[in-house]
Amino acid sequence: MIRVTAAANSSITLDRMTPQKKITVVIADDHTLVRRGLVSLLSLNDDIEVVAEVGDGRVAVEITLERLPDVVMMDLSMPNLSGFEAIRQIKMRAPTVKILVLSAYDNEEYVLETVLNGADGYMLKNTSPDELNNAIKTVASGGTYYSASVAKIAEEARSALSSSPDGPAARIADRLTEREREILQLIAEARTHQQIADILHISVRTVDTHRHNIIQKLDLHDTASLVTYAIKNGIVILHR
């Protein structure tokens, strides 16, 4: 961009300005209409560029690691890999990427879980466009941003985490490995062992082994108990 200015002696000088880098965003939401609406909304902001939109938690992780956007807008209720687990994996592998949760859920457990997994903000889906734009810019610049109704919960969780960084390791859900949490979610989604094997590109025998390990670690010995556990611990989220 070239800016033309008049000097004190009335001569003309050219001041070359470096174009401002846009904030790159990946949108992860399992509802197509929501994603398209967010893309249209954010396209009105000259400072923001949507580089990808995905409807699957596992693909969200893959695209994020490939594109390395400034911000990922993450829904929590995602197929194949929950938003919680996607946040955990992204922060583990690409810690500089900022994650802004955009969810319909405002309960304390979900907010706490996102903070513990490393999310940088939590917005409710009834937020205004202006506030959403502000939230994206805030987290992109290294800050945190929360909807007013969840801000107190989030800040208390962040404070507790900073004073006791080893706290999350004691959570029940952390008894399971990353792969075991993935398989537990797929079991809770009523996937067969063959379907799980196909999704994760592993053998059915390996799925069986992981399921056995999950059962032993959690001391839960039937599918109904595993599903209940997955729901209570945010490994899978039921749609409202």
| Beta-strand proportion | 15-25%
Seen as an oligomer or otherwise, the chain set is: single chain
The CATH architecture assignment of the largest domain turns out to be 3-Layer(aba) Sandwich
Give the CATH superfamily of the largest domain: Response regulator
Helix content: 40-55%
Q: Report the strand count.
A: 8
Structural class: alpha/beta
Q: What is the count of distinct domains?
A: 2
Counting DSSP H or I runs of 4 or more residues, the number of helices is 10
Main beta sheet, described?
6 strands, parallel
Distance between the termini: 48 Å
What is the string of helix and strand elements? EEEHEHEHEHEHEHHHHH
What's the level 1 CATH class of the largest domain? Alpha Beta
Overall pLDDT score: 85
- Major sheet: order of its strands? 4-3-5-6-7-8
Shape type: globular
Low-confidence stretches: 1-15
CATH topology of the largest domain: Rossmann fold
Radius of gyration over all CA atoms, rounded: 21 Å
Structure characterization notes:
The chain has helices at residues 32-42, 57-67, 83-93, 108-117, 129-140, 148-163, 178-188, 193-200, 204-218, 223-232; strands spanning 2-6, 12-16, 23-28, 48-54, 71-74, 98-103, 121-124, 145-146. It starts with a strand and ends in an 8-residue tail after the last helix. The chain is an alpha/beta fold. The protein is 48% helix and 16% strand. It folds into two domains: 23-165, Rossmann fold, CATH 3.40.50; 171-232, Orthogonal Bundle (Arc Repressor Mutant, subunit A). The strands form two sheets. It has a six-stranded parallel beta sheet, with helices on both faces. It has a two-stranded antiparallel ribbon with strand order 1-2. The model is unreliable at 1-15 (pLDDT under 50). Helix 7 (178-188) crosses helix 10 (223-232).
